[in-house]
């Protein structure tokens, strides 16, 4: 009986082997929070290790160093937003519905993921250096322009969208409208109050961002299509 109990105690004392991929995901999730809250210089690897029940040595094994982890977090963040865009399946929608859906998705994604916006702001403080060093961020983001170009082309071929609209510029406009809503929420609220940042205000802004973009893209004789897609 004593031998059986001792065997059970040894089994319980053995550390549970963790899934390497799961460990990497946990590190990236916690690192996103740490970097987005404290920036590259202020983030602490010790804190990330403690919260993920790993070690600094393990983190460096997976990601090289602190800057390598930061760069990987950036890549992961962009990968998630672009993955969400792919799931919209815009090519199966009519052009007006597709552009509306993309605008609403971008606005809603950004407001629900403020850590992503903070990461982009931090990387701009570093003049985009880590993004330029990345071998994947460019490739991950290019399909966003190509998908938008496809929507524009279909709309122009159907006589709905005016010619001369560039996909890259339109992407910039959609991003700008959606980004400001998060990046400047604190300062805007301090000056003008937080009405626009309450649930009702956010829903209205999301709708109006899509309408503004459509008014820019639609031919004058098709403006009446705004709102028909919900």
Automatic annotation (TrEMBL):
This is TetR family transcriptional regulator. Pfam families: TetR_C_29 (PF17938), TetR_N (PF00440). It comes from the Bacteria. It comes from Allorhizobium taibaishanense. Residues 21-81 form the HTH tetR-type domain. PANTHER family: HTH-TYPE TRANSCRIPTIONAL REPRESSOR SCO4008, TRANSCRIPTIONAL REPRESSOR. GO terms for molecular function: DNA binding. InterPro entries: Homeodomain-like_sf (IPR009057), HTH-type_TetR-like_transc_reg (IPR050109), HTH_TetR (IPR001647), NicS_C (IPR041474), Tet_transcr_reg_TetR-rel_C_sf (IPR036271). Keywords: DNA-binding. The lineage of its organism: Bacteria, Pseudomonadati, Pseudomonadota, Alphaproteobacteria, Hyphomicrobiales. Residues 44-63 bind DNA.
